[in-house]
Amino acid sequence: MGRPEADWTRLSAMTVLGNALQGLQLDDCNEEALAILQAKLSILRRLKPGEPNHPSIHALLGNISNCYSQLGRYEECLEIARDVFAFNKAVHGNSSERTISVSVNLANALLCAGRIKEAKQFLLERIKLVRRALGADHMFAIQLSAQYGTGLIHETDSSLDDRQEAVEVLESCERRARRVLGSPHPLTGKIEILLEAAREKLRTHNGG
Q1: Contact indicator for 120, 98 with CB cutoff of 8 Å
Q2: What is the reported pTM?
């Protein structure tokens, strides 16, 4: 780029390019995005050798974790997501919006990595906290509840009660998302897809 390694414009451009490539959700672009974001991480760690927990480093790690998820590298995604959540919880507090935001990422990482039971336990704790801190109508509360419903769907040994609960949870999420976010919102659309999957799984269990 022709600028010094520590130049802020250069570092910002690397983040913008990495995030833009990641947003295309194409494997080749995500590999490029990962390489760019990892290069920036190396630069930041060299510039801040005594600050391994600098906020800019953890923000970048969150982007790298998302890249791993899109590439299907779920264990690597989960490892970083755990670290980012622990950092934000320690620095910003358990109920801050920043910590709650990264808890959504950690829950998704747990689900994608197949840690369903751990994900469900984590989500029940976070849902209770988020509803108390931000209210049940907050987008994060809806999102975490939908993730809990997802866990119920994908439990390998799910019972009839689990499948019925999944439908009930996701129906509640859908109603709330439509009212608070509106039908065109991407989260509302995702919940509708999850709800149909939950209903189909319940029908299968009932022999329908």
Answers
A1: no
A2: 0.80
